[in-house]
Write a structure and sequence with these properties.
It is built from three helices and five strands, in the order E-E-E-E-E-H-H-H. By secondary structure, it is of the alpha+beta class. A hairpin with a 6-residue loop joins strand 3 (35-40) and strand 4 (47-49).
């Protein structure tokens, strides 16, 4: 008899693990591919990470204007990225432009 924790011949082998990430603005958990990643490299100006693989501390946002506004009013990006200065307004515009694409 096979252990229930081991894969059995009837298990769904095609199921693949999808990493979940949390939006810093609303707290919702979504698959990593559905969220936008903002990255900060040790005190540099934060920037939008289009590849999702840039080195540095990352924070995830839902791809919606509501979450972007909420993150700015709550200063959620500054807190998640451990920034000492406020996030630049140009970053907000860059994120909103990426959402519209």
């Amino acid at each position: 008899m096979l252990n229930s924790k081991l894969k059995t011949p009837n298990s769904k082998l095609s199921m693949k693990h999808v990493p979940l990430r949390t939006c810093v603005a609303c707290g919702g958990k979504k698959p990593q591919g559905e969220l936008l990643r903002v990255v900060s490299r040790g005190g540099d100006v934060p920037q939008l990470d289009s590849t999702g693989r840039a080195p540095g501390r990352g924070a995830y946002l839902c791809a919606g204007a509501v979450c972007v506004e909420k993150a700015w009013t709550r200063r959620a990006l500054e807190r998640a990225l451990k920034l000492k200065a406020p996030a630049p307004a140009a970053l907000k515009e860059q994120i909103l432009a990426a959402i519209e694409k």
